[in-house]
Amino acid sequence: MARCVTADPDTFAEHHWGQRPLLSRRGDLPERFDDLLDLDAVDELLSRRGLRTPFLRIARTGEVVDSRQFTGPGGAGAEVADQVRDDQVAALFGEGATIVLQGLHRMWPPVIDFVTRLAEELGHPAQANAYVTPPSSRGFAAHYDVHDVFVLQLAGRKHWTVHPPVHQDPLRDQPSSRYSSQVAAAAEREWPLIDTVLEPGDSLYLPRGYLHAATALGEVSAHLTVGIHTVTRYALVEALAVLLADEPELRRSLPPGIDVSDPEQLAPQLRTVLDVLAGRLHRVPATDVARQVRERVWTGGRPEPLPPVAQATLADELRPGDEVRRRVGLGHRLHPGGEQLELELPDRTLTLPAGTAAALDVLLDGHPVAVDELPGLDESEQLVLVRRLLREGVLVAGAAGRR
């Protein structure tokens, strides 16, 4: 977060998160963003990495180009039909089309690491796309996103206009296209909240729903958009609906012959449902809701990558002095019990001896720790516990770990 905004975390959370945009200039940020992605890296991705759809999208005059115009067979030894053709991408870009590299949080190492850490800090899933625009070209018309975004200017200059929402805090199924006429009217008639040029190293935070459009100025422009898939209070409503599915009265069929378009016929059924909800909702445990919601967050992204060969080698050859740490971004929850503990992970639950509790607290806080510094266990027990968690993908080599 400290790389994305100039505000301190408390100020950002209180005054900007989900509320209003924040423009941060490169002189007030700790460093620029070209370590994450630059134009040379863009060319490498497009020409040497065997990129396929849907990891590339191209837009021209505000419309998405059919992928068949820039993809083709992979050739001998790569029998796929949708590999990116760099020559066709070059031709389209030369004609003024915008290149959109999608899912960079899954395929470009610096972006993978950056997005994984940002998502863990925020507690919300995140993704990253890059937009590369030819000189003096606009990629997309004014629109809004259904997720918050951090715009990180990588190269060139881009003119941005930002307008207030026409639909406040849109949900995932309430895209900009649903309000296209209002969006177009607001972008044309209303005075923008932000009308500025982003230079390399500048950043812009936009809560979901804020209208925006951008135009490159005089040279190739590239920015990284980190999208934050915010978990909303409506997600709690959805979790409650799932939990109430075990209520028999709510599972009953409506009467035969009912006309559900008739409010008078529907009214008594609605009253029954409301009575049931009034009696049940206040008794739903927060632990049950948390279990439903965290599943969405934990599966909304992946933890940091681990090297399979090095990981297996470290587990096999583990020594007391080796350092390990929890994988960044790994969703987990430790449940104390009697003689056993349960470590809940996104796709499974591990059962561990209760005597490992103190060691697990140290291991799961995320900081590197030497195996022989784990409390409450002798050397043999330390090695057994860490080997298991390495093989389960919970831990990785720490700062001083052997690779």
How would the blueprint of this fold be written?
Blueprint: H1 9-15, E1 22-24, H2 39-48, E2 56-60, E3 63-64, E4 71-72, E5 83-84, H3 86-94, E6 98-101, H4 109-122, E7 126-133, E8 148-155, E9 158-163, H5 180-189, E10 194-198, E11 203-206, E12 211-216, E13 221-228, H6 233-243, H7 248-251, H8 263-280, H9 286-298, H10 308-316, E14 323-326, E15 333-335, E16 340-344, E17 349-353, H11 357-364, E18 369-370, H12 379-391, E19 395-397
Helix pairs in contact: 6-9, 10-12
Explain what this protein looks like in three dimensions.
With 403 residues, the protein is of the alpha+beta class. It has three domains: 9-228, Sandwich (Jelly Rolls), CATH 2.60.120.650; 233-297, no CATH class; 308-397, Outer Surface Protein A, domain 3 (Alpha-Beta Complex), CATH 3.90.930.40. The chain has helices spanning 9-15, 39-48, 86-94, 109-122, 180-189, 233-243, 248-251, 263-280, 286-298, 308-316, 357-364, 379-391, and strands spanning 22-24, 56-60, 63-64, 71-72, 83-84, 98-101, 126-133, 148-155, 158-163, 194-198, 203-206, 211-216, 221-228, 323-326, 333-335, 340-344, 349-353, 369-370, 395-397. α10 (308-316) runs antiparallel to α12. The two termini are 29 Å apart.
